[in-house]
Automatic annotation (TrEMBL):
Residues 1-41, 239-262, 302-348 are annotated as: Disordered. Signal peptide: none annotated. Keywords: Coiled coil. It comes from Hyaloscypha hepaticicola. Residues 86-138 form a coiled coil. This is Uncharacterized protein. Residues 1-15, 328-348 have a biased composition (Polar residues).
Amino acid sequence: MSRPQTSSRRIQTRSAVKKAARAWNITPPPDDTERDHGPTEEGLLFTSRCLLEVHEQVDSVRQEVQDLRAYQHRCRDEIATSPLSQSSLEERLHEIEGRTETLEKAQDTKHAELCELLDNIKDEVAELENTVEEEVGKVGLEVVDLDGRMAAGFSEINARLDIISNAMEIQRNSMATRFYATVHPLSILGGNGAGVQQGVAGKTVQWYWKCHDPKYLNRLVNLHEFYSLDFNNWYNASNSDSDSDDDSTDLNHPVPEPSSIREAAQLRPKRAVMALFSHLGLPYHVFEEQTERSHFALTERKRAKNDEAETKGRKIKQRYVGRDGISFSGSPTDVNASPTQSAVTTGD
């Protein structure tokens, strides 16, 4: 045998040995490829162990086959010797049918009970729904009533706050003593849900005092309408201070009753301004006294100026008498004075 063939056989043998070693978990003999003599002791021991494992495997398989055959025979005997017969099967079938019928009857009875219970539940639910609807309706009415009362309460609170705020503004206005002082406007509750509206801000007392002038009649009427001042409350009011300056107090010329704020303000502007000042808290008499003092001082200055001019005119007027006995009256410019004339001043 050639050397290559011998090497190939050794490789195949070694591969088979490794597979057998892995299969039965046996340590393979050492790989001694240089020896050409017969098998070694390790190889024989490995071979014997492999044969022993094969024999054990064969015995195990044979035992399993015998057990399987015995089980098959036992099953066949049990089937052949079974006590079940045609009659017993029929009895079991009748028994099953009877139980099925009983179960169906019980099921029908239970179904009827459940249907009746369901109808009762539906009636109770319907009654409960009606009760809940009634209660919800009552609660809704109570909520609406509560909302109304809350809205009324808030409106009352806001109205009181506005009253307090206006009272503070009136108090501040009452301390005004000069025409250049700023007037603090009052707030009113606007209609149609417009909320609180504020009067004209940043105006001085002089701006309101000018309402005495007929050319500011529109301003006076607008202020009366904004603050909702009823002219019936002040037009015919008995007030000596206001009546003293009204021409309407003449009994020979009675004033007709006005039908609007504009007519009332045209007929009695002073009373209209006094009513406006009273509503804002402005001290009308203080500014009236200042106006009267100013008018009196102006009148006195005019009178003093006129007196001074009249006195000066009297001093200028002179009577001139010439040496020839002819007298002249008038100013010196009315006479062609000559060096021979002498002026004699006489009183008028």
